[in-house]
Amino acid sequence: MARKTLVIAESKEGQCRHVSFEAIAAAKQLADGGEVVAVLCGDQVEAFGPILGYYGADRVLIVENEQLKSYTPDGYKQALMQVISSEQPKAIVMGHTAMGKDLSAGLAARLDCGLVSDITDLEIGDKPLFIRPIYSGKAFEKKRINSEMLFVTLRPNNIAALEKDETREVTIEVFDVVVKDLRTIVKDIVKKTTTGVDLSEAKVIVSGGRGVKNAEGFKPLQELADVLGGAVGASRAACDAGYCDYSLQIGQTGKVVTPDLYIACGISGAIQHLAGMSNSKVIVAINKDPEANIFNIADYGIVGDLFEVVPRLTQHFKEVLQQA
What we know:
- The chain has helices spanning about 20-30, 50-55, 75-85, 100-110, 220-230, 235-240, 270-275, 305-324; strands spanning about 5-10, 10, 15, 35-40, 60-65, 90-95, 115-120, 120-125, 130-135, 140-145, 150-155, 170-175, 205-210, 230-235, 260-265, 280-285, 300-305.
- By secondary structure, the protein is of the alpha/beta class.
- Strand 2 (about 10) and strand 3 (about 15) form a beta hairpin.
- Helix 5 (about 220-230) runs parallel beside helix 8 (about 305-324).
- The chain starts with a strand and ends with a helix.
């Protein structure tokens, strides 16, 4: 059954987030032949319109307003409710990001529609089924939305984006909104992490645990991540010990990631950490303890000192990539 589907796209640090392209791919399935409309809110984001079209959007709505320069729940809900009221979509898709988690629940409540969050796959039909992990990734459940409108958030790195086609022609429209009476105003943003690959969307993650011993111990991990074009993560134990900022934490109380390659260095494999990374496509564990729990879920295991193993891996990858 064809259904008009709205994709709420995101931009960050001057780039369109990759999960938005994945959301368009999921929306194409959900639309089942219907129109896929991407909407992007912000200030000076019109340049992203064609890119969303290259990845499959049939039409792009640009919502520019100085009140939307920084994300606030009030501002974005006001703007998007005006878009939804005008477009009348049958389904809405967005990324399960920090913004997506915050925004989707409020929008679904206002729309009085069902919401399935953190989906990793979907089965299309007259009443689509949405698949999401439960019990910290130990099992999966299938959910069906009974309301007239469907609303889902998509976990990054699970549904592949469509191949970029720069020959696609897409209609780009500017959608004017009224944003007022904001209860929250962002004055300034202070970042604790360095710029680089977004951890939640990274295809390669090199993660450190208590075994890195101190903040300096993350340097060889960062070097390996840089060579592989990836990001650095951490276990809660490493964050609690003060080795790194909590923004790098992966686990049940941190970020949930599903990269193509996850390299765990000096991580014992506590259940709380496994909940955040166990669905990675390939897991490599490096640990001095051959009985460490992380080896039970690893595809490849290296028993050894990470300070000897990681630099060797870095050097080897450099040589291989230079030859490629």
